[in-house]
Amino acid sequence: MPEDREIDRKDFFKEGPLSLIRAFMEGSREEPLPRKPPAGDIPRLRPPGAVAEAAFLETCEGGGACAETCPAIAILLVPRKDNSGREAPMLEPSVAACVLCDDLSCMKACPSGALQLIPREAIRIGIVKIDREECFAWSGLDVFCDYCVDLCPVGESAIRMVSEGELKGPHMGEACTGCGVCEYHCPTYPAAVRVFELPGE
Predict the structure, then answer these.
(1) Are 186 and 33 in contact (CB under 8 A)?
(2) CA distances (Å), 4 to each of 1, 8, 10, in order?
(3) Torsion angle (degrees, nearest 10) of CA 153, 157, 159, 162
(4) Domains recognised in the chain with CATH numbers
(5) Which residues contact 67 (CB under 8 A, 6 or more apart)?
(6) What phi, psi does 97 have (nearest 5°)?
(7) pLDDT by residue (tens digit) across 117-137?
């Protein structure tokens, strides 16, 4: 009998933290808790359809039409670093993510050409990287987490679950647009899946 109680205690202390993680994740699936961006430099992510950075800064008038029309309220206007006194639009997926809206509203609203209307499949906002050490799915814990895959507006061509030995976790595909929905909904903090600037930007 004492041996049975010892097994029960071990199961309790193993399952207790996992139950809390599962409860938190279920609560965060629909709408994550508000959170601050990770410490350090914030990646310079422009709205979808942005021309190359040098041309973008020359072309963008900073009027904010793209931000006003964004249905996800994901486009922020921040002061430019060139001391021009103007603002420029950018995205911070940890705060709000581009949802690749059906209308591609920001591109159509841009009056200057800094944002070009391009097909949805051609959008490349940033590059997504997964920190496997922080990812619940890759951690080896008895916690199934597929929020980044389940909520991706592009689908399996952008991110999918793959198996490696006994572990199973998300893997990025070539169709990823870098919209940031995966980062926004990731239940870890800082997010285990994050959007970074495209190489050469």
Answers:
(1) no
(2) 5, 6, 10
(3) 140
(4) 2-34+125-196 (no CATH), 53-122 (3.30.70)
(5) 75, 76, 77, 89, 106
(6) -110, 150
(7) 999 999 999 999 999 999 999
